[in-house]
């Protein structure tokens, strides 16, 4: 289950009552900043816009690709760690408006995470350090650190990703890292 806070509404659906839950002027400001950031090819400028105007937490050396769509209404609920990559045209949502309620949830993306292009992250999820999300995925639940996930909705493809550059023998030489098939591991 995703970690969201639920707010019931009465009468018309929650989206129809949008400006009872968030200021119109906040949405206008956020929309303008996000649209500028979506087309800005300079990641440093983009991160500055997110931190300064949207109050997002964005780690050093994080790269947010072109056309990434941050949550317009509650971007301050999004946190991206250090040295992560958010792929082209990804959508990160911190809210969802339903018929009888709306939900808000933090989106926490760890350090050195890679999110493939055209992915969607739903509110209330955490992606652990070093995880990889395949392109075109729907992240509807937490992703463990180091996991490789993909699909709609996501499923774990590999529990832990090992970078051969980080595996060394006691003498300091690079060790050969076998993938599951080479090692004879069956899932």
Distance between the termini: 25 Å
- The number of helical segments is 4
Could you estimate the helical fraction of the residues in percent?
10-25%
The CATH superfamily is Hexapeptide repeat proteins
CATH topology: UDP N-Acetylglucosamine Acyltransferase, domain 1
Detail the poorly predicted runs.
Answer: 182-187
Structural class: alpha/beta
CATH architecture, by name, is: 3 Solenoid
Overall shape: it is globular
- Report the CATH C-level class: Mainly Beta
Question: Order of strands side by side in the largest beta sheet?
Answer: 3-6-11-14-16-17
Order of helices and strands: EHHHEEEEEEEEEEEEEEEEH
Number of strands: 17
Report the radius of gyration as a whole number of Å.
Answer: 19 Å
The number of domains is: 1
Structure description:
Keywords: Repeat, Transferase. The chain is an alpha/beta fold and 187 residues long. The protein has a single domain (5-162), classed as 3 Solenoid (UDP N-Acetylglucosamine Acyltransferase, domain 1), CATH 2.160.10. It is 19% helix and 24% strand. The strands form 4 sheets. It has a 6-stranded mixed β-sheet with strand order 3-6-11-14-16-17. Strands 2-5-10-13 form a 4-stranded parallel β-sheet, with helices on one face. The protein is globular, with a radius of gyration of 19 Å. The two termini are 25 Å apart. Residues 182-187 have low confidence and may be disordered.
